[in-house]
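Bench notes, afternoon.
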Amino acid sequence: LAVQEFAWARDVLGRSGVTEQHQASMVRWFFEALRRQPLAPAESELAGELERHFLSALRQVHHAG
């Protein structure tokens, strides 16, 4: 689902000048806010894995299209 949303955003938002860097910043901001929460170590690790996954998916979508 995230890959589909990133592809949609690339095509639609790209027309308004929204770049991969803009989208990556939004992903990072979300996870920075999450890291400020009192997370258990396992939750923190999972959040880091999810952030890396989303950023990787975002790169793949932008470099494939």
